[in-house]
Amino acid sequence: MPAVSVKRYSQRLSSYRYRCGNTAAVYGNEDGTAAVYGNEDAVGDAVREAIATGLCTREELFITSKLWVQDMANYDLAKAGIDASLKKSGLDYFDLYLLHQAMGDYFSAWRALEDAYEAGKLKAIGVSNFYAHVLANFCETVRITPMVNQVELHPYFAQPAALETMKHYNVQPEAWAPLGGGRHKPYENEMLERIADAHQKTIAQVVLRWNVQRGVTVIPKSTRQERIEENFTIWDFSLTDNEMAQINTLDLGYVGEAVKHFNPEFVRGCLGVKIHD
């Protein structure tokens, strides 16, 4: 899987087609989708258009989707959810498919992912938003260990202990909101600005590079072509140990702001989101 990819939520189909086609041609892009985002059909259309016009091949793309919690109540629902995602996208397979949250009967849902993986429908399988203690229990229990855990990871929520747990189980960490998800102001941080100036890079590039040097795959969200290209231009410099340590001091050390599995209202809210009848 690519070390840097592009996050997409629900935008206009024309925007999907434009960005998927252009970034795929340059980078071998990962396209992030999920059942609950309502974008699987649009991403599938964009992929087919990019391939048909010769911008890329299917093998140059890395397409991720996620199973929503409504379809994680049992094995049969999960199996049907996987098939529904493939049908909506019009793709023969997903390169990576994740359980979206550690909710519902995620052990039974995981068995459906294991079977789809062995059937070739899913090239890799993983989880999303699994805290370290949940991931440890999960890895010790399931037949096929998750290959990826997609979680909130940025300088203000660095999760060093979670990274150690993932390393122990050989699970690749993947960061959503690697720039802080709009809830922090890294672009106004003087220390980050000094480091960026020293490397003649942007603050965003420095923050992404910080995560990559920790072994984390990053998926920054963007709708602008120039920002997408900027996000990939992080391979021609390295942060020093001292710079990494300085950025580490930004960690606030709390459980994430966007995903709050310890908050009953958040859990009930997720379980109440229905994406189909």
From TrEMBL:
NADP-dependent oxidoreductase domain ranges (all copies): 33-250
Gene3D superfamilies: NADP-dependent oxidoreductase domain
Site positions per UniProt: Lowers pKa of active site Tyr: 66
A matching Pfam family: Aldo_ket_red
Any GO MF annotation of the entry: oxidoreductase activity
InterPro entries (alphabetical): AKR, NAD(P)_OxRdtase_dom_sf, NADP_OxRdtase_dom
Active site, renumbered: 37
Binding site residues for substrate: 100
PANTHER family the record matches: ALDO/KETO REDUCTASE
Record-given protein name: Oxidoreductase, aldo/keto reductase family
UniProt organism field: Salmonella enterica subsp. enterica serovar Rubislaw str. A4-653
Lineage of producing organism: Bacteria, Pseudomonadati, Pseudomonadota, Gammaproteobacteria, Enterobacterales
